[in-house]
Amino acid sequence: MIMEVLSNATEEYDRGEKMEIYRKAGVSEYWIVDWRKKRVEIYLNDGREDGTTYFYLYKTVTAENKEALQLVMFPNLKTDFDELFHL
Asked: What are the distances in angstroms from CA 17 to CA 27, 46, 48, 74?
């Protein structure tokens, strides 16, 4: 699991090339934390029949559904939305 905090300077790289590097490395869960919008996008890495993999957006968590924030691959580890964004 990797959690990436976006910045204005690196957002395009984090959503593109870096995400591709993580996919190829076999990272199973990739969180993109947007501190400006107070939003967490949770991407999961899945496989195709031909053996290739791809990330898909599993869930977006905001203040409205903050109780849904939890690690998918490690469900016993808890994180708190308000703590993440210092609310």
From this structure: 14, 18, 20, 25
- pTM passes above 0.85: yes
**One-letter identity of residue 25:** A
Token pair for 8 = 């204005």
Per-residue pLDDT reduced to its tens digit, 19-39: 999 999 999 999 999 999 999
Q: How far is CA 8 from CA 5, 13, 14, 35, 38, in A?
A: 10, 10, 10, 11, 14
